[in-house]
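Researcher: I'd like a structural prediction for the single chain below. Treat it as a standalone chain; there are no partners to consider.
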Amino acid sequence: MIVHEAALSGGFGAEIAAILAEHCLFGLLAPVRRVAGYDTVMPLAQLERHYMPSRERILEAAREVLRYT
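Model: Treating it as a single chain, here is the predicted structure.
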């Protein structure tokens, strides 16, 4: 699972996921799951809380990955 604050597509986490898929695909026990900001322009400061990965989104992604084990 990769968590980062940038947009989901084209961000640092997307690059890490691509490297994992390229080099470790057959060794992974579960698919790579990314939790990131949305693919949109970074909002104003008062809306930043809704853009950033929340605790709930991170926990849901962790549960999803753990279902594979």
